[in-house]
C-alpha cells in the first residue's frame, strides 16, 4: 500500500495546478477531470483486466452539465486493490485515485472519494451517446476500475452520466438540480420598479413573497415543480422557474435553500440561469446539515449567484 501512496503523491505534485489544456500530450484535454486524482495518458479501456477486484461508485443523481465542477463521488474497491481508475472509454486520459482507508468490517477493501469536473466543451464530444429512451438527453459512460498495488486492473464497472438539455421553453429559465434524495428549494428574487412598495418578488415553492402587479407589462416566473417536497422523494431532483412572457428588467438573485437533507449527510447542487441566447449565471456547491437550521421563508438559503436581465 505504501508504494502506491508514495507514487501517487509524487505524480499529483506534477499536476497541482492543472487546468483544461489544448496540449494533447499532457493528457489534460480529456472530458473528465478528477480532483484528488492523477491523470494517466491513454484510454481507460486500454489495460487488460487481470485481477478479480471490483469497485462501486456512489452519487445518487448522475445528471451532468458542461463545465460542472466538484461533483462528489465515493465508493469501495476490493478485495486487495487500493486505487481506482476513472475515465471515459475513448478519451485521451483517465484518472487514478487512491483508496487508503480500510472499509469498516472488511480489511481487504478500501474506501475512496474524489470530485469530478467536466470540460466546458462536453457538448461537442463524439464520446456522448444518445439516450434511447429520451432523444433530448445524451449519455456519457463513466468507467470505474479497481487497481492494485502493482498496477493490475480489474474489469470496468460502467455508470451512465446524463447530460440534460438546457432546452426548457421560456424567455428566461432558472434551474436548480442536486445529486442526493434531499429536499432543496430554489428561490429566485425578481426585480420590480423601485417605486413599488414590495421592492422585489421571490418565486419559490410556497408561492411568492408578494403579489404586486408588475409594471410595463412585465410578468413574473413560475416554479414548475417542488421536487422531493417534505422528503417525499420523487427522483426528479430538479426545480425550474420559467418565464414565458417578458421578464421584468433588473437584478435577479438566485438562492438555494436546504429545507431538509432527509437523512443524508450532504448534497451537491448546481444552479444556472439562461435565455435562448445566452447563459446569464451559474454556480455549484455542497450543502450539509448546517444549511437546514434557518427558517424556510421566502429568500432563505445561501446566495448562489446574481445576474441582470436583460
Overview of this structure, please?
This protein has about 300 residues and is mainly beta. The protein has two domains: about 1-165, Immunoglobulins (Immunoglobulin-like); about 170-310, Sandwich (Lipoxygenase-1). The protein is built from one helix and 22 strands. The protein has one helix at about 1-15, and strands at about 30-35, 40, 55, 65, 70-80, 85, 95-100, 100-105, 105-120, 130, 135-145, 155-165, 170-180, 185-190, 200-205, 205-210, 220-225, 240-245, 250-260, 265-275, 280-290, 300-310. The strands form four sheets. Strands 2, 4, 6, 7, 10, 11 and 12 form a seven-stranded mixed sheet that branches. A hairpin with an 8-residue loop joins strand 14 and strand 15. The longest helix has 12 residues, at about 1-15. Mean pLDDT is about 80; it is low at about 1-25, about 195-200 and about 210-215.
Quick rundown:
This protein has one helix at 2-13; strands at residues 32-35, 38-41, 54-55, 63-64, 71-78, 83-87, 93-98, 101-103, 106-118, 129-131, 134-147, 157-163, 172-178, 183-191, 200-204, 207-208, 222-223, 238-243, 250-260, 266-274, 279-288, 302-309. It is mostly beta strands and 310 residues long.
Contiguous runs where pLDDT drops below 50 for at least 5 residues:
1-27, 193-199, 210-217
At the first level of CATH, the class of the largest domain is Mainly Beta
CATH topology of the largest domain: Immunoglobulin-like
- Helix/strand order, N-terminal first: HEEEEEEEEEEEEEEEEEEEEEE
Rg from C-alpha positions? 22 Å
Sheet/helix structural class? mainly beta
Shape: globular
Put simply, the count of helices is 1
- The CATH superfamily of the largest domain is Immunoglobulins
- Beta content comes to over 45%
> How many strands, what sense, and barrel or not for the largest sheet?
7 strands, mixed
Query: Please, what is the average pLDDT?
Result: 79
Secondary structure tally: strands: 22
CATH architecture of the largest domain: Sandwich
- The separation of the N and C termini measures 56 Å
Amino acid at each position: 500500500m505504501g508504494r502506491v501512496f508514495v507514487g501517487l503523491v509524487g505524480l499529483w505534485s506534477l499536476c497541482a495546478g492543472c487546468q483544461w489544456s489544448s496540449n494533447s500530450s499532457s493528457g489534460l484535454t480529456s472530458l473528465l477531470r478528477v480532483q484528488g486524482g492523477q491523470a494517466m495518458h491513454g484510454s481507460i479501456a486500454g489495460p487488460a483486466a487481470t485481477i478479480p477486484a471490483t469497485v462501486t461508485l456512489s452519487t445518487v443523481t448522475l445528471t451532468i452539465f458542461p463545465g460542472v465542477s466538484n461533483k462528489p463521488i465515493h465508493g469501495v474497491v476490493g478485495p486487495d486493490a487500493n486505487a481506482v481508475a476513472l475515465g471515459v472509454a475513448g478519451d485521451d486520459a483517465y484518472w487514478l485515485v487512491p483508496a487508503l482507508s480500510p472499509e469498516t468490517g472488511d480489511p481487504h477493501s478500501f474506501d475512496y472519494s474524489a470530485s469530478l469536473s467536466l470540460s466546458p466543451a462536453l457538448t461537442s464530444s463524439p464520446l456522448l451517446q444518445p439516450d434511447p429512451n429520451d432523444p433530448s438527453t445524451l449519455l456519457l459512460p463513466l468507467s470505474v476500475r479497481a487497481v492494485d498495488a502493482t498496477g493490475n486492473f480489474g474489469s470496468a464497472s460502467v455508470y451512465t452520466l446524463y447530460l440534460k438539455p438546457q432546452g426548457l421553453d421560456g424567455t428566461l429559465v432558472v434551474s436548480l438540480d442536486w445529486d442526493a434524495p434531499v429536499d432543496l428549494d430554489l428561490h429566485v428574487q425578481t426585480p420590480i420598479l423601485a417605486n413599488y412598495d414590495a421592492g422585489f418578488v421571490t418565486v419559490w415553492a410556497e408561492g411568492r413573497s408578494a403579489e404586486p402587479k408588475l409594471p410595463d407589462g412585465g410578468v413574473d416566473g413560475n416554479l414548475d415543480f417542488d421536487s422531493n417536497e417534505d422528503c417525499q422523494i420523487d427522483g426528479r431532483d430538479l426545480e425550474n422557474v420559467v418565464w414565458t412572457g417578458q421578464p421584468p428588467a433588473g437584478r435577479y438573485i438566485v438562492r438555494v435553500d436546504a429545507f431538509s437533507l432527509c437523512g443524508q449527510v450532504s448534497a451537491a447542487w448546481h444552479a444556472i440561469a439562461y435565455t435562448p441566447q445566452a447563459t446569464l449565471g451559474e454556480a455549484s456547491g455542497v450543502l450539509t446539515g448546517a444549511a437546514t437550521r434557518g427558517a424556510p421563508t421566502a429568500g432563505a438559503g445561501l446566495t448562489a449567484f446574481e445576474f441582470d436581465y436583460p
